[in-house]
Amino acid sequence: MSEVLPYTFGGIKKIPASQARFMILPVPYEGTVSFRTGTKFGPEAVIFSSRYMELYDEETDTEPWENGIITLPVITQEVDSAGKMMKKIQKTVGKLLKDNKFVFAIGGEHSISFPIVLEYRKKYPDLKVLHFDAHADLRKEYEGSKFSHASVMRRISEIGCEIFSFGIRSLSKEEADALPEIRNVHINFAYKCRNQDLIKMAASLPDGNYYISIDIDCFDPSVVPDTGTPEPGGFTWYEVTGFLKDFVATHNVVAADLVELAPSNHYCPGSFLAAKLIYKTIAYVCTSQSKS
Ligand SMILES: [Mn+2]
Questions:
Q1: How far is it, in rounded angstroms, from Cα 227 to Cα 160?
Q2: For residues 166 and 183, what is the distance between their CA atoms, to the nearest angstrom?
Q3: CATH code of 86's domain
Q4: What is the pLDDT of residues 240-252, one digit of tens each?
Q5: Which residues make Cβ contacts (< 8 Å) with residue 189, sequence separation at least 6?
Q6: CA distance readout (Å), 291 to 60, 88, 101, 286
Q7: C-alpha 137 – ligand 1 centre gap (Å)
Q8: Cys-Cys with 190: which of 75, 124, 169, 283 at CB 3.0–4.6 Å?
């Protein structure tokens, strides 16, 4: 059966770019990963699994694929320089943005968010970032690289974007000490999120245009063990999707990414969850816009 499905996100038939609103962008970049490797296999595993999802979404009673979803060619890795890789991603995203596309990137490591945000911010100067992660990712640099996955939110904060981070439960003393000075980053630690109404937190974020960055390690390792640095104490499926549903209903989301999946194989639960989370987010975005 698998052989008859096209190797595209959702197994969705190819359509001309002009008819599509959503662009699935596979970026299997793994340049600076620290602990367990394998994020470069993320996009392929997610796309493989996505072909077995139902394309009808029962929660929104919609068929999100009808809004036009295209799977783009992979952005291949520049091996000699992280900076070159960042430029390559930015260039690709720039072209898609000109055509008003909603880019949904699949990593790869978290570093890929920075060039995408840089590009979207040109069009949306008020761009804010909704960030799900176990890690703050606020190091000045890591292992000699300023484009490290462990520094990505620091880089984004430096260009002036406001960042709202949820699920954080791992950061260095250096990052914790820097927090009071990095005023545009709002950290919601996991231990605090667990005792609060996440839905209320979602709706209370300021208005504006948003980029959503989902590090798969925001989930508890019992839900998704397939990631580079699995940290205990993470979110469940309904905590993340419930938050996203309410957030997307009240805010304008212009692009997103899902990063840091390190699949043990194509059939691992994490790759199926990631595929479904991407499709759900698209369903929420489409439903929210049809209401407005
Ligand atoms: Mn992380």
A1: 29
A2: 16
A3: 3.40.800.10
A4: 999 999 999 999 9
A5: 168, 169
A6: 12, 36, 20, 9
A7: 7
A8: 169
Please give the distance, rounded to the nearest whole angstrom, from the Cα atom of residue 156 to the centre of ligand 1. Answer: 15
Q: How far is the CA of 217 from the centre of ligand 1 (A)?
A: 5
What domain range includes position 223? 2-291
The alpha carbon of 76 and the centre of ligand 1 are apart by a number of angstroms equal to 22
In this prediction the pTM is: 0.95
Could you give the residue ranges of the DSSP H alpha helices within the chain? 42-50, 82-98, 113-123, 152-158, 173-178, 190-193, 198-203, 237-250, 269-291
Q: How many domains does the chain have?
A: 1
Of 236, 218, 238, nearest in space to 227 by CA: 218
Cα of 263 to ligand 1 centre, how many Å?
Answer: 15
Distance 89 CA to ligand 1 centre (A): 20
Q: Give the distance (Å) from ligand 1 centre to CA of residue 109.
A: 9
Low-confidence spans in the chain with pLDDT less than 70: 1-5, 32-36, 79, 289-292
